[in-house]
Amino acid sequence: MGSAKNKSSAERKARIEEMRRAERARERRGRILTITASAVIVAGLVVGGVVLVQSQSDDSDSTTDSKTAGKLVAGADGVSTWKGTLSQNHVTKSVKYPVTPPVGGDHHAAWMNCNGDVYTKAVNNENAVHSLEHGAVWVTYNSEAPKADVDALAEKVKQTPYTLMSPVEDQKDPIVLTAWGHQRTVTGADDPKVGEFFEKFVQGEQTPEKGAACTGGLSG
Fold it and tell me: Residue 187 — φ and ψ, nearest 5°?
């Protein structure tokens, strides 16, 4: 009987010890899970903070300066030429150009259709500059330009591939002609300099991407 008691006591102690070992194992697993979960949460907060900062940075800096270096120099023939470099990077933000209308520089990946396209509302500079890169001439005007001249120029543009036309209210002169790296003002639609500018710069030697499409882009 004593032997049976001793055996029962030993078995009970063994079961208790096994239960204690199981409990200690559960506690260790619990600590590991807690530490892991905490690390994941901290990492998530850090990543979220970085993303938030980047997002706020993008929102607060939605424009970028063009990497263009140089200046527009007036020539004896009335055509101003950019003296320096005109960058050609594709960007997603708005670009601060040094002249208005811009004569080149960084631009959006999409170009404005320039197959004789006439836009009655302002277009994004970044898209129009891409059209210049393809060899287009951009005719622009402000509210001081006589309506008769605007209408006549629109007809000329419609008949000329690799041209486009749009209003640019903050330009200095009523009517401006722009090609990649070149620009001039004209007195009106009947100014012979209009035809001369078209002849020289529509798909002219200044074109960085001669033969590139003037269709398949944006249409306003």
Answer: -80, -20
Tokens 């001081």 correspond to 144
What's the whole-model pTM score? Answer: 0.72
DSSP state of 144: T
Note every long-range contact of 83-86, with CB atoms under 8 Å and residues 24 or more positions apart, other chains counting.
Answer: 86/180, 86/181
Angstrom distance (rounded) from CA 123 to CA 162:
16
Separation of alpha carbons 126 and 64, rounded Å: 11
Q: What fold is seen in the domain 63-201?
A: Glutaredoxin (3.40.30)
The side-by-side arrangement of strands in the sheet containing 182-185 is: 69-74, 80-85, 182-185, 175-179, 137-141, 163-167, 115-118
Instruction: Return the domain boundaries, the chain.
Output: 1-60, 63-201
Distance CA 104, CA 96 (A): 11
Q: For 59-95, how does the pLDDT look when each residue is reduced to its tens digit (9 = 90+)?
A: 334 667 666 779 999 999 999 999 999 999 999 999 9
With tokens 């204690």, the residue in question is: 20
Answer whether the bond into residue 146 is a cis peptide, omega within 30°.
no
